[in-house]
Design a protein that fits this description.
Helix 2 crosses helix 3. The relative contact order is 0.04. The chain has helices at about 5-15, 25-40, 45-55, 60-75, 80-95, 100-110, 115-120, 135-145, 155-170, 190-200, 280-285, 380-385, 405-410, 460, 545-560, and strands at about 130-135, 175, 185, 205-210, 225-230, 250-255, 270-275, 290-295, 305, 320, 330, 340-350, 370-375, 390-395, 420-425, 445-450, 450-455, 470, 475, 480, 495, 505, 515-520, 540-545, 570. The protein is globular. Among the domains are: about 20-110, Helicase, Ruva Protein, domain 3; about 275-355 and about 360-400, Alpha-Beta Horseshoe (Leucine-rich repeat, LRR (right-handed beta-alpha superhelix)), CATH 3.80.10; about 445-573, Alpha-Beta Horseshoe (Leucine-rich repeat, LRR (right-handed beta-alpha superhelix)), CATH 3.80.10. It is of the alpha/beta class. This is Disease resistance protein winged helix domain-containing protein. InterPro entries: Apaf_helical, LRR_dom_sf, P-loop_NTPase, WH-like_DNA-bd_sf, WHD_DRP. Belongs to the disease resistance NB-LRR family. Keywords: ATP-binding, Leucine-rich repeat, Nucleotide-binding, Plant defense, Repeat.
């Protein structure tokens, strides 16, 4: 099915007569506006007449109504402000302009708080169909300096509140939520994106340029942020020559064979989504960089080595490098970057911190929150001291060096990372839980290849805040699992993949608030039938599981449907 606002597009694409949606009438328009502004709450009667006028002036367009509803919901509820909105809408409707919808949306944009406007304009970075990764967008906003600290919250937590605010104003929409309901990605209506793009270009805030053998617009020298798509641009015509060296702050996109050793880039703060063959010398030229994301096309088989010059990145906050699974070696100087918040790679080797001496106190990296895909991570007492606020850690032990056995990795010290919320551990060696420590703060745990006996899972089950557990590729070993009551008290999502588990002897009280069960390549004799009685269970997903597993899932579904439970969903692939 294709939806479009353009009748000629519908006529050309349809194999049958297009179905035309009518505009909302005045009553339905008011009902929608009232719901967006007041929800289920009783509304003051003095707003009804004004509200109906505002709804009518939206011309029956649902998008205009929900955006104006978001504006009214977020603004002070005074009759004076509502009269102001009604008058503005009336003047737009009676202007005879073909862009009434955009002008209505601009009312919401013009009334955005000052701190939200740059965050909204930043979404001009994509196009009308772009799905924005919220985690990435948050990192970019932080690096750009758009965030105001909110009391005791981190900048990232403040950014998520900005996302919620834009959602409440209906300027963006949720595209995908995570297992725990958190917003993973968002998108924009094409009209909202058009408004965003126009305003960003008008203010020289951000430009998106598709070159494709065409001339580069000369006015990009005034642009502060540039997203470039120039797959066919000749190397001799570098876009960097057109930039204003004291103006450009952020760049994204495909730069072909363009060298980053360019004087116009020394003040660059953000470099994102770049594909290219870059040397470490080119990277080190970006001395003011805060956010750096590069997809390397070619990396030596021996890996990529950063030099001690990385210490020049005094302002670096986020470093994200894709090397197609080739290793990256970081120098000890990485521990001297005070602003660093996120380190994310395909695979990287993190050296031990340099030894403290009488001349230099060790730097406590208060801002560091993410270490993703660290090879052979050693959780020494010194590292625990250096990263007190670490929230996310992903470690890989696929081939341990001969001189590095589990006791030497000091993973029992993980228990002292009191802010750690997410831990992923991928190994290709059997590991005993006596060598692993789990902090009580842990909310998400992913294990792979560890071959832990099922009876030892009581250690994991006792974690008081654990909400997501993923057991992949023989994370646990044995044919039988008998959970104990009083464990997994907060677990909402459980993923089990590629294990030899056959008998799962569990009752509903063993997973009292489970919402989501995922089984991949599992040949259970039976999924515990009492799971169907869990009032919280919403979804069971099976992927390439044995017939007995599938049959038991279907039996649970049939029984629940016969009892009138329509909330449970079973997906079998």
């Amino acid at each position: 099915m294709i939806t479009t606002r353009l009748s000629n597009v519908a006529d050309n694409l349809s194999t049958c007569r297009p179905f035309e949606l009518s505009f909302l009438d005045d009553d339905r328009s008011w009902d929608l506006l009232r719901e967006k502004v007041f929800g289920e709450r009783v509304y003051p009667p003095e707003f009804e007449k004004l509200g109906k006028t505002i709804a009518k002036n939206c011309g029956g367009l649902p998008l205009a109504i929900v955006v104006i509803g978001g504006l009214l919901a977020k603004s002070k509820k005074t009759t004076e402000f509502w009269e102001h909105v009604a008058e503005n809408l009336y003047s737009i409707i009676n202007s005879g302009d073909n862009e009434n919808s955009l002008k209505i949306l601009s009312l919401s944009y013009n009334n955005l708080p000052v701190h939200l406007k740059p965050c909204f304009l930043y979404m001009a970075l994509g196009h009308e169909d772009t799905v924005f990764n919220v985690s990435l967008m948050v990192k970019l906003w932080v690096s750009e300096g758009f965030l105001k600290p909110i009391r005791t919250k981190s900048l990232e937590e403040a950014a998520y509140e900005y996302i919620i605010d834009l959602l409440d104003r209906n300027l963006i929409f949720v595209f995908k939520r995570g297992i725990l309901g958190q917003i993973k990605s968002c998108c924009m209506h094409d009209l909202a994106w058009e408004l965003c793009s126009r305003e960003a270009q008008k203010l020289d805030f951000l430009r998106v340029i598709d070159v494709h053998n065409h001339d580069i617009p000369p006015d990009i020298q005034f642009c502060r942020r540039l997203s470039l798509r120039q797959a066919h641009l000749k190397p001799s015509r570098s876009v960097l020559d057109f930039l204003g060296p004291t103006v450009i702050r952020s760049m994204f996109g495909e730069f072909g064979h363009t060298s980053l050793c360019h004087t116009n880039l020394r003040l660059l703060r953000v470099l994102g989504g770049v594909d290219g063959e870059l040397s470490s010398d080119e990277i080190m030229n970006l001395v003011n960089i805060r956010f750096l994301s590069i997809d390397f096309e070619r990396v030596p088989k021996s890996g990529l080595m950063f030099t001690s010059s990385i210490s020049l990145f005094w302002n670096l906050q986020s470093l994200n490098i894709d090397t197609s699974d080739q290793e990256i070696f970081l120098p000890p100087e990485i521990w001297n970057l005070p602003q660093l918040r996120h380190l994310q790679f395909d695979r990287f080797v993190l050296p031990d911190p340099p030894c403290e001496d009488d001349r230099h106190d060790s730097l406590i990296m208060e801002n560091l929150q993410t270490l993703a895909k660290v090879l052979y991570f050693r959780c020494t007492e010194e590292i625990v001291k250096r990263v007190p606020n670490l929230k996310e850690l992903k470690v890989i032990y696929d081939r341990l060096p001969w001189d590095m056995q589990w006791p030497r990795l000091c993973l029992y010290n993980l228990v002292h990372l009191h802010k750690l919320e997410s831990l992923a551990c991928k190994v290709l060696h059997t590991i005993s839980l006596k060598y692993l420590g789990f902090p009580l703060s842990l909310r998400k745990l992913a294990l792979s290849g560890s071959r832990i006996p099922w009876e030892d899972m009581t250690v994991v089950g006792s974690l008081p805040n654990l909400e997501v557990l993923k057991l992949r590729f023989h994370a646990c070993e044995g044919s039988e699992w008998c959970p104990v009551e009083g464990e997994f008290v907060r677990l909402k999502s459980l993923v089990i993949s590629k294990t030899n588990l056959r008998y799962w002897r569990a009752e509903r009280t063993h997973f009292p608030i489970l919402e989501h069960l995922v089984l991949h390549y599992i040949h259970l004799k039976e999924i515990p039938q009492e799971f169907g009685e869990l009032l919280t269970l919403r979804k069971i997903e099976l992927f390439k599981c044995g017939q007995s597993t599938i049959t038991s899932a279907e039996k649970i579904l049939e029984e629940q449907e016969s009892l009138g439970n329509e909330n449970l969903q079973v997906i079998i692939i």
